[in-house]
Amino acid sequence: MPLLVLVIVIIGGVILASALFGLVVFGVVRRRTRRRTSSKSANPIAGAEQSRPVLTDEDPGQPTTLDPLVTKPLSGSHSEASILSRSPATLEQARALQQQAGEEVAVLRREVHEQTADLERREHRLGDREARLDNDARLLEERAQGLAQLEEDLAARKLELLDLAEERRRILERLAELTAEQAKAELIGEIEHDAKRQGAVRARDIENQIQAESQTRARRLLATVIQRVASEQTAEAVVSAVHLPSDDMKGRIIGREGRNIRSFEQTTGVNVIIDETPDAVLLSCFDPVRREIARLTLERLLFDGRIHPSRIEEMHQRSQAEVEQVCQRAGEDALVEAGITSMHPELVTTLGQLKFRTSYGQNVLKHLIESCHIAGLIADELQLDRKLCGRAALLHDIGKALTHEAEGSHAMVGAELARRFGESEDVVHAIEAHHNEVEPRTVEAIITQAADAISGGRPGARRESLESYVKRLARLEEIARECEGVDKVFAMQAGREIRVMVLPDVVDDIQAQVLARDIAKQVEHELTYPGQIKVTVVRESRATEVAR
Q1: How far does Cα 272 stand from its chain's mean position?
Q2: How many whole angstroms separate alpha carbon 490 and alpha carbon 519?
Q3: Residue 152 Cα distances to 90, 145, 155, 352, angstroms
């Protein structure tokens, strides 16, 4: 509002100045018109002025005597001529000033009009807002009244419920012939008994679970340590066989006084085992990458036919370069398959080295790719970051690619390696916590644990030794046969299902259900196995008659 008043005052001042300027111009023009009229009436005087005496050179010293009446009209006629000579310029300047003042007045009028319209719009909006506020206030008042009514109703209902509870207590005491204190004591005794029983069952389950997990983790720890450090391992994990064209090549591999075999072992770092195995030589080493390089080196030497120390070193260098390229290509292929676009080159190479490493008979690189896909699916279901979960799952076992020179578990070593090459803290934490060596603090770490367990526990993913497999199947059948009323037992699907045939005359339907539960509990207590085992009890009644 002060701005509008100021604008109106400015416009009024401009209009007043324009009016005054117009009056001044009008007065000047009118004065000049009068002077022109008076000059026309003074023309006889001008003629007399023309007949005035003229001074000559003959009497220069004589003073000029002019009539005062003539002199005065002469000076007046001169000033009127000068004013008339300046009148067009003055009029033009006046017109320009008047036009400029009119333009300024028009601009100010437009501004005043725009500001007036803006003020009207603001007033309209304020009116709408006041109306909405009044409506909201009315609604709030109605809601407050409704809530107050509800509170009153609830208070009344509460009093009614208290009265009903008291009446019910009196009826129960009269029917049970017990007071409230006696009933409470009896109820507490029953609850304590049930709680103790459930607590004992729960404690037994927890103890069994801890024992099973400790055995599983101990086996995994021993297997990992053996694979990374031990010099003598099972043939399946640390031994590669190289076929020979003939047994004569064994002598050439050994060389004169063992020169070639010593040079080969020193160059490759792999033990060469030459025994009675026909047409084969065994290469033993705990490092799968080094063992693969030695295998390629020996195969090239056998194909070339020239076996001597210098040739061994040359072939070893070529094989080493080829294996490094294979590891690099395997790491890049794993990133493409996992859908990851950027990673440090050292991590890619280290990841590719897992192509030659196995865990429980499962290829570690394939296990990581499978875990990455599983983690991505879990993240999609939980609406989390798929790329972050997949990246953590892909790198969770990267510590297994390092040699025995790295100290610590593969989870901690892998986490330190990922941190060194710029991985995020979420990925590093998921790597170090996937075996619970560090308490998992993020959802990504828990998803990585789940993906690792799913990939490792998938049927057929990992295999156990033949001896332990046969013992487990035999024990499964023995447990089922020890039960009363069992006729036949079959261990099916590689020991993942037990089918028990019972005698229908001895075991009825209810006893068959109890028998299945008892067998399952005994298997859980006595055996260690991946996944789960299904127990099926079959009770079949047959009636046979011969028609004659």
Answers
A1: 50
A2: 13
A3: 91, 11, 5, 74
DSSP of 497-520, one letter per residue? EEEEEE-TTT--HHHHHHHHHHHH
Phi, psi of 243 (to 5 degrees): -80, 140
Is 378 within 8 Å of 430 (Cβ atoms)? Answer: no
Strand-pair partners of 488: 501
DSSP character at residue 60: T
List phi, psi (to 5°) of 269: 75, 25
DSSP string covering 408-449: S-HHHHHHHHHHHTT--HHHHHHHHTTTSSS---SHHHHHHH
* CA triple 247-253-258, angle to 5 deg: 120
Q: Nearest CA to 444 among 459, 423, 428, 457?
A: 428
Structure letter (DSSP) for residue 43 = H
Alpha carbon of residue 99 to chain centroid: 69
The answer to whether the pTM exceeds 0.70 is: no
Q: Of 323, 321, 343, which Cα lies nearest the Cα of 332? A: 343
- The burial class, CB within 10 Å (0-12 / 13-18 / 19+), for 378 is buried
Taking the chain, what is the end-to-end CA distance rounded to the nearest angstrom? 121
| pLDDT tens by residue, 263-321 | 888 888 888 888 766 778 888 877 778 888 888 888 888 888 888 888 888 888 888 88
Residue type, 261: I
